[in-house]
Write a structure and sequence with these properties.
Distance between the termini: 34 Å
Structural class: mainly alpha
Strand content: under 5%
CATH superfamily: Farnesyl Diphosphate Synthase
Number of domains: 1
CATH class: Mainly Alpha
Number of strands: 0
Helix content: over 70%
CATH topology: Farnesyl Diphosphate Synthase
Order of helices and strands: HHHHHHHHHHHHHHHHHH
């Protein structure tokens, strides 16, 4: 699944291979592996989850090397203990802000937010970044719900203007739930600035502010003005850009050039493709919830209405657009400049998590199915000897 949009021969090869794999699905001993590959190709899977699922397969292989298997299990369990400590700290932070008690629409997605960021980077040296971005993700879930489900058009205009001004002190004219959110967000930004100060990269705070404005002021302002999301305008950079920038600033801050930061702020092609894919996949599996919203239509609903097509036809069209976005991401990833390889890897890993979380359902919104199983695999049960 590493093809791009201008490789018809490779597409033929993939179709040929898929056909053969479909016919081999029931053949032992590779039934599980084939089924997994057909459902989620390795290139589109979460690195940590793919490793967890493969270790038991490798253990049964005739080529299994005992010492290598033992090392893999030890490594997995060691990393898991680090991740468990991080998510425990994340829960403490969430309870201190008490958003659940004060915001009637708040969704407790601590485990889900952390799981998503764990898929972007899982290595032990990124512990600080992982925790901070998980907190950011959690706050962005609140922003999503304010815009998509709870706030009125008039309230959203006030909310957007407040972010544009970057003024979180003079909030007396806002509804109470928005004041509560801005209080939590101010605390988070203070924590970010403290970490930047420790790393000697406080001068990057300008970029953080500008990037943090993007979700609330670019696409969501447009949504307020039009009261609709057009498919051609559905690339929301709401989560990926701040994630990428915080990650780079926190870990590579001293070595980042102004050109690299400006490039990120310009919303490069791989970011657009990743965001398009996220919006479309989210709409594909959230259509029932979307229909309950009073002021937003999903890409699926828009396509059906504007083009006069059936739901089945609209789903097929959106899936085709998702496939095209994946190929655009592949092209950007394969042609990455060395100086931007690490940044493009973040976009790729973020998109992989979209594939994992929205493969069969919106498991971020409804976490009791696939999400619960995956979180349990990676964060609850260690590998047994």
């Amino acid at each position: 699944m590493l093809g791009t949009n201008d490789e018809p021969i490779l597409k033929e090869a993939m179709d040929f291979a898929r056909g053969h794999l479909e016919r081999m699905k029931g053949e032992e001993p590779r039934t599980a592996q084939i089924g997994r590959a057909l459902e989620t190709p390795f290139h589109r899977g979460m690195r940590r989850l793919e490793a967890r699922l493969y270790i038991p397969v490798y253990a049964k292989s005739k080529a299994c090397i005992a010492i290598l298997l033992e090392l893999a299990k030890l490594d997995f369990n060691h990393l898991q203990s680090i991740h468990q400590a991080e998510i425990q700290s994340f829960y403490v932070w969430s309870e201190e802000f008490s958003l659940m008690k004060h915001l009637p629409f708040y969704r407790d997605r601590v485990a889900e937010s952390y799981f998503w960021i764990l898929g972007v980077w899982f290595e032990p040296q990124y512990s600080t970044e992982r925790l901070l971005i998980s907190k950011l993700f959690n706050l962005m879930t609140v922003i999503d719900d304010i815009y998509d489900a709870y706030g009125t058009i008039e309230e959203l205009q006030l909310f957007t203007n407040q972010i544009e001004r970057w003024d979180f002190q003079n909030v007396d004219g806002l509804p109470e739930y928005m004041r509560i959110f801005f209080n939590a967000f101010t605390g988070f930004m203070t924590e970010i600035e403290e970490e930047l100060r420790k790393k000697g990269t406080l001068h990057h705070s300008h970029y953080i502010i500008e990037l943090s404005k993007l979700p609330g002021c670019c696409m969501d302002k447009h949504r307020i003005q039009t009261n609709i999301r057009r498919i051609s305008q559905c690339f929301t950079c709401d989560r990926w850009i701040p994630v990428a920038h915080f990650r780079l600033t926190m870990h590579y801050g001293k070595y980042l050039s102004k050109d690299t930061l400006d490039w990120l702020l310009s919303v490069p092609k791989i970011v657009k493709a990743s965001s398009i894919l996220f919006r479309l996949v989210d709409d594909l599996f959230s259509s029932e919830f979307e229909q309950q919203r009073k002021h937003l239509d999903s890409s699926l609903q828009i396509s059906m209405r504007d083009e006069g097509i059936t739901e089945q036809e609209a789903v097929a069209k959106l899936k085709s657009m998702v496939d095209k976005a994946w190929k655009d991401i592949n092209k950007e990833w394969l042609s990455s400049l060395p100086s931007r390889k690490h940044l493009n890897l973040l976009a790729l890993n973020y998109t992989r998590m979209v594939e994992v979380i929205y493969k069969h359902e919106d498991s971020y919104t409804n976490p009791d199915g696939h999400m619960k199983d995956n979180v349990t695999l990676l964060l609850v049960h260690p590998m047994e000897d």
